[in-house]
Amino acid sequence: MPVITTVDDLRRIYRRRVPKMFYEYCETGSWTEQTFRDNSADFSQIRLRQRVAVDMSDRSTRTTMIGEDVAMPVALAPVGLTGMQHADGEILAARAAERFGVPFTLTTMSICSIEDVAEHTTKPFWFQLYVMRDQDFLRRIIARAKAAQVSALVVTLDLQMLGQRHRDIKNGLSAPPKPTLANIVNLATRWRWGLGMLGTKRRRFGNIVGHIDSVSDPADVMAWNAEQFDPRLDWKQIEAIRDIWGGKLILKGIMEPEDAVMAAKIGADAIVVSNHGGRQLDGAVSSIRALQPVLEAVGDRVEVWLDSGIRSGQDVLKAVAMGARGTMIGRAYVYGLGAMGEAGVTRALEVIHMELDKSMAFCGHRDIREVRRDILRVPKGFSGEWD
Ligand SMILES: Cc1cc2nc3c(=O)[nH]c(=O)nc-3n(C[C@H](O)[C@H](O)[C@H](O)COP(=O)(O)O)c2cc1C
Q: How far is the CA of 93 from the centre of ligand 1 (A)?
């Protein structure tokens, strides 16, 4: 077992073990990837204030997110095709999250279905909905989430169409991979991944295949998806989904105060300041820079969370100190999953937790709920002296 001390250690192992097509699907942003890079780079612009001679015993990173107890203010974000990063990936990640005490979010675009994940876990998880044109599918998938005891619906607002990611097009991304010469050559060096995939039946989009008459084979799913994301999505439709769902609602992909105000108005329980990990609108600011104006607009009315760019517990600490009630991580846990399955996701969470806990203590705090902006040194104009 290799010695893993950082999330980046997991990324390096992940890169060696998972087919190039899926590594690049994860480790990519749209167009020039400027926003993808800024998301992480901007965290490192913020510095921490070291405090001394403060009692650092009996620390706690426990808090709540939409009323649910969490071991630390971190949830696993919805990530498409997780079951292609490792056989049964969604089930393994959900189990690791459950054991660690943090929420897991299953995407619409998962390989393991909602029912499958529910059957292999013991606590409720969250389900992320992509709003599709097919209203019948939409109603049925919400009903399936309810039947599976999902405890919150995460509606993603920043993907009414796909941002162009060059490498996915060049790699011919599909699930499962097509048997082209390039794929066969690459898969030959990823035997561990291949053996896992041979050992599972879950190799297709589990929430879709078998639930739509026109979709029976993987090639059809890609085509179905491409035309199904609903470009007409608006606040009226979000309200309608809120009413059909009737439970806790999280709106993800909000970057601007005007949109945050709308989200608060329709009664969202939480919003996620997110640019989809730099995979949609390239050229958008990093989410850590976008946080402050959103907090000023709605911070007293709705829980404001943040994702995009988090690779360490220090990033979580900085987001919380800036005012986020919670965070989500995407790639950081996928690296762990691709590297070592369930144990890898657990390791990613352990690393992040340890970094968060110790850094909080070095900044003079014992309870994450008491951390405030005064532990930070934030560059002047960080949250926008833009015209
Ligand atoms: C490979 C990959 C697939 C993703 N798929 C989805 C998805 O299906 N639904 C969704 O709402 N967000 C999706 N996202 C965005 C994540 O939920 C999250 O916003 C993003 O990963 C946060 O950035 P980070 O990866 O830097 O932590 C995906 C992100 C990645 C990296």
A: 14
User: Which among 281, 357, 261, 270 has a CA at the least distance from the CA of 317?
Assistant: 357
272 CA closest ligand 1 atom index: 19
pLDDT, one tens digit per residue, over 154-208 is: 999 999 999 999 999 999 888 888 888 988 988 889 999 999 999 999 999 999 9
pLDDT for res 58: 97
Tokens 């199904």 correspond to 228
Can you spell out the DSSP letters for 135-196?
Answer: HHHHHHHHHHHHHTT--EEEEE-S-SSPPP-HHHHHHT--SSPP--HHHHHHHHT-HHHHHH
- Alpha carbon of 324 to ligand 1 centroid (Å): 18
Q: Which residue has the least CA distance to atom 4 on ligand 1?
A: 79
276 catalytic? Reply is yes
* Residue in 292, 276, 272 with CA at minimum distance from that of residue 284: 276
d(CA 48, ligand 1 centre) in Å: 27
Residue-wise pLDDT for 35-46, tens only, equals 999 999 999 999
Q: Against a cut of 0.90, is the pTM above it?
A: yes
Q: Which atom of ligand 1 is nearest the CA belonging to 331?
A: 25
